[in-house]
Design a protein that fits this description.
alpha/beta; Metallo-beta-lactamase, Chain A; seven-stranded mixed β-sheet; five-stranded mixed β-sheet; 14 strands; 18% strand
Length: 327
């Protein structure tokens, strides 16, 4: 897991020229006991993209913590809400846009148990390889997110060892091999196991895969099926927001992954290596209903999303080539 193939941002994202702290962090309470804290790194087009969930419980839980650079925003938001204690920090995965601020958050809430996939434990106690991989993969975006700092081993709990009656752990590899989702009450916190679902202000959400390299389609489909089997009511996306129709959205994302598989299998053999991703993207922008709102988004957001789409296609193309060589 040394190299991070994240959906965290294009390697050459435009970094904002701001030097002061970002504007006051937005806090939204969509339902009782649940808050969405919106973090804003100093990167153009990332205003409504990074979300941390606070479930006031009991137990009182943070789902992910965001990057290190936005930790002051998160701490200020928690203080504004009146949070002095956290029982659990539930990490969906260790990519730095989800776990980069963990060292500072763990120090601020020394009673909190940090839950993560067992494959992520070593990378949190010694994050040097994770940070080096993030810099290599994400470039300027990683620098804007900031380096992750180490967490003491005794603060960490492997997800398969968590024993709390109110927290259901669901292993959901796909976006990352170490991805975990969590169910509390009728809330399903999916990280990126259900893809990315963004309100666009156009009356239609943007839905897209988060399938970076090392992606395996069959693994991701099994993870979605595991989430559907829970028959959840509400789905909480890291990117971005709460939706009421969890089964329909999970099924729509499953259908989307299969649609991408068909397009990649059809287009990839027709084009040279340097043109495969572009040809697939052009066709998907025409044919994928989940992507139809992209053209109506602000230019900076379109740049961000286009970078993510290309990265997700690299994951699909890698999966396609592996399947073909195994035939």
């Amino acid at each position: 897991m040394a190299t991070q193939h994240s959906d965290s941002g294009p390697a050459h994202a435009r970094i904002s020229g701001e030097t002061a702290l970002a504007p006051a962090t937005r806090v939204h309470q969509p339902i009782p006991r649940l808050f969405l804290i919106t973090l804003k790194p100093l990167i153009d087009g990332f205003d409504d993209f990074l979300g941390v969930w606070l479930y006031t419980g009991p137990p009182r839980v943070l789902v992910d913590v965001g990057p290190a650079a936005t930790t002051p925003q998160l701490l200020a938001a928690l203080e504004r809400i009146g949070i002095a204690r956290i029982d659990y920090v539930l990490l969906t995965h260790i990519h730095i846009d989800h776990a980069g601020g963990l060292g500072e958050i763990a120090a601020a809430f020394p009673e909190a148990h940090v839950v993560v996939h067992s494959r992520g434990l070593a990378h949190l106690t010694d994050p040097a390889r994770l940070w080096a991989g993030s810099l290599k993969t994400l470039g300027a975006t990683a620098e804007a997110y900031g380096p992750i700092t180490a967490v003491a081993e005794d603060r960490l709990t492997a997800a398969d060892e968590l024993d709390h009656h109110a927290i259901e752990v669901v292993f959901t590899p796909g976006h990352a091999p170490h991805h975990v989702s969590y169910r509390l009450d009728d809330l399903l916190f999916v990280g990126e196991a259900g893809g990315v679902c963004l309100a666009t202000g156009t009356g239609k959400d943007l839905m897209r895969p988060a399938t970076p390299p090392q992606f395996r389609l069959e693994t991701a489909l099994r993870s979605i099926d595991a989430l559907l089997a829970l028959d959840p009511c509400k789905i909480a996306y890291s990117h971005f927001g709460l939706r009421d129709d969890a089964p329909a959205l999970l099924q729509a994302h499953r259908d989307q992954l299969l649609r991408w598989q068909v397009v990649v299998a059809d287009e990839a053999p027709r084009h040279p290596a340097g043109r495969k991703a572009a040809a697939c993207l052009q066709r998907l922008l025409r044919e994928d209903p989940g992507l139809q709102a992209l053209a109506r988004l602000p230019a900076a957001v379109q740049r961000r999303e286009t970078g993510f789409l290309k990265n997700s296609l690299r994951g699909f193309l890698g999966d396609f080539e592996e399947r073909r060589t195994q035939r």
